[in-house]
Design goal:
single chain, seven-stranded parallel β-sheet, 12 strands, about 35% helix
Length: about 260
């Protein structure tokens, strides 16, 4: 096992750049998974990391030892505890990080039957929650505009809890082009809509278009909708959080298709 103890180590410097920079992640086509849960989800998807990084305590952790046993000949590097803490955003690091190649889905848009189009979702927690809900509901693809948060950042990965590895995620997309190529209903939510989500037949191919947390969908993308819908809210609130509204819409699809 390789040991890194110096902050001046070239490999460690590259890892620091990767953990803190969306631009570097895009350039390298790689990211870091932080913690045993994310690594387990990655392995469960039939994938193997490029490298594993552990701290000294990992050798005493039964869960980490079990995960290491599943990774075959993947190289393992032990980092000094101070260096490991620099790469992990967790207050209490779990003791393992995985360097992975960011998946690059190749399937055409027209193959999708249950999708999300996300326009300028900027909060990493919201984006991660949406990806988690999409994975849980059985979406096959999520399309992100150029203005969305980095889908492969540590915060989004943690919020999605492994949902990334059950989805095809297309970043930096022209959503107008995606909408035109999608073969199915395109639904947009609006507080001004008169048609309820629960009045829609969602058993065919469907995609929900979700806009920025504050500004909502752009007028151009709203114009692509085949149906504008509202989520009935009998309570005394004006609107739902974007991630919560997305989850409600996705699981109405699940309910109808199960019926």
């Amino acid at each position: 096992m390789k040991l890194i103890q110096s902050r001046d180590n070239p490999s460690f410097k590259e890892l620091v750049k990767l953990s803190g920079s969306a631009r570097q992640r895009g350039k390298a086509g790689q990211t870091l998974l932080d913690g045993a849960h994310l690594l387990a989800a990655y392995l469960d998807a039939g994938l193997l990391p490029q490298q594993l990084l552990v701290n000294a305590a990992a050798a005493q952790d039964t869960e980490i030892i079990r995960l290491l046993g599943r990774t075959g000949n993947v190289p393992v590097t032990q980092l000094d505890d101070r260096l490991f803490a620099e790469l992990s955003e967790l207050k209490t690091p779990t003791g393992i990080l995985a360097l992975i190649d960011i998946p690059q889905p190749a399937a055409p848009i027209a193959d999708s039957r249950f999708a999300l189009l996300l326009e300028d979702i900027q909060d990493p927690g919201n984006l991660g929650s949406m990806l988690r809900s999409a994975a849980a509901a059985g979406c096959d693809a999520v399309f992100l505009s150029q203005g969305c948060a980095d889908a492969w950042s540590p915060k989004v990965l943690r919020a999605a809890m492994g949902g990334h590895f059950a989805l095809r995620i297309y970043e930096r997309q022209d959503l107008l082009s995606v909408a035109k190529e999608f073969h199915g209903a395109l639904l947009a939510t609006s507080l001004q809509a008169t048609h309820s989500l629960y009045q829609c037949d969602l058993r065919g191919s469907v995609a929900f278009m979700v806009g920025n947390e504050g500004a909502g969908l752009s007028s151009e993308l709203s114009g692509c909708a085949t149906q504008t819908i509202t989520i009935p809210m009998p309570g005394r609130v004006e609107s739902l959080n974007a991630a919560a509204a997305t989850a409600v819409c996705l699981f109405e699809v699940v309910r109808q298709r199960a019926g």
